[in-house]
Design a protein that fits this description.
This protein has 344 residues and is an alpha/beta fold. It is 37% helix and 13% strand. Strand 9, helix 7 and strand 10 form a beta-alpha-beta unit. Helix 1 crosses helix 2.
Length: 344
């Protein structure tokens, strides 16, 4: 698991947005092969969506061939309600980019059969080829999506009952009236998130410092469900300095040093790839062929005489075109003739 630490929430969010843009562009999605992106809601990803929208307006990325699956939705809250996650996504992201409505998937918290709705959601994810990258956030209690403390780490999309801490935290979106906050939601499961080929969490603010410490330094636990990322082979957490307040200093230094080394290695690789002289040299080496099958005939006087290098060069990148001229100018005597002349 990687931990990317930035000075503030905006810098951390910008890093994540640029990473997503890079992944989409490198993937080169098409209608037949779209990039499948999992998305969260809540306050954590708002800045990320802002940076993504800005990048789209600058023609740095297109979402025309991106398919999305959102993490969750409240139960019994009308889609048109200003605090529904349908409204949130269109307000902060979908209505500002070129994503196709048919490519947008959100859970229906008003479905007649909620269990069937969840099963169908899992089927659609599988039909889409699985999620390439799942972006998520976490609450102060370390939950991922609406997988509250105590959720199974193998859970799938299902009806989830919200914890009191979550209800209280979300009341800020409902005029601080806890009675107005829905008590249940449809949510992808921990197992659903873990099935994604890559997972990124954004965790910012001192109020989430304990959660980050538990997720990174603690044991994998169903009490801190986001800790499941320790078991994912391709997971990353982006955070700000404030969120690291509860972590050990040596842990923070370790992750900072890892990122620094990776950046240095990347810069060195890019520098080497841009040097035409290095590429020319490597190309010459690949063309070099030395014929080691030739055996020099033993001399009449029985001496061992080394063969000339020119006899072993065969159609190589450093072969000399006119060996005859070279041999005319370099006449080599054998060791025996020089010893005899010295003895005389």
């Amino acid at each position: 698991m990687k931990l990317i630490i930035r000075e503030d929430a905006n810098s951390a969010s910008e890093y994540v947005a640029q990473y997503i843009i890079h992944r989409i562009n490198d993937f080169e999605p098409t209608p037949e092969r779209p990039f499948v992106l999992g998305l969260p809601t809540g306050s954590s990803p708002e800045l990320i969506y802002r940076h993504l929208v800005e990048a789209y307006k600058n023609d740095d990325v297109s979402f025309a061939n991106v398919v999305t699956f959102n993490m969750d939705e409240y139960v019994d809250l009308p889609e048109e309600h200003p605090e529904s996650y349908h409204s949130f996504m269109y307000k902060h992201f979908f209505s500002h980019v070129d994503i196709k409505p048919a490519n947008v998937h959100l859970l229906n918290g008003n479905a007649e059969d909620l269990v069937a709705e969840c099963a169908e959601y899992e089927r659609k994810i599988k039909e889409a080829g699985g999620i390439e990258l799942f972006l998520g956030g976490t609450g102060p209690d370390g939950h991922i999506a609406f997988n509250e403390p105590g959720s199974s780490l193998r859970s799938r999309t299902r009806v989830a009952t919200l914890a009191e801490d979550t209800i209280r935290a979300n009341s800020r979106f409902f005029d601080n009236d806890i009675s107005q906050v829905p008590k249940q939601a449809l949510s992808v499961g921990v197992g659903t998130v873990m099935d994604a080929r890559e997972v990124i969490l954004i965790i910012t603010g001192a109020h989430k410092a304990i959660a980050l410490q538990k997720v990174v330094e603690g044991s994998v636990s169903h009490i801190w469900t986001a800790s499941c990322l320790q078991m994912h082979e391709n997971a990353m957490i982006a955070c700000d300095d404030a969120a690291t307040d509860e972590m050990q200093v040596k842990t923070v230094k370790y992750f900072r040093s890892i990122e620094k080394i990776e950046q240095e290695q990347l810069a060195r690789t890019q520098l080497n790839s841009e040097d035409p002289r290095l590429q020319q040299w490597r190309g010459a080496l690949k063309k070099l062929e030395i014929d080691t099958s030739q055996k020099a005939a033993a001399p009449a006087n029985g001496e061992i005489t080394p063969d000339s290098m020119t006899s072993r060069l065969h159609d190589s990148a450093i072969a000399i075109d006119d060996m005859d001229k070279m041999e005319d100018g370099l006449k080599l005597t054998n060791m025996g003739s020089r010893v005899n002349s010295m003895a005389m």
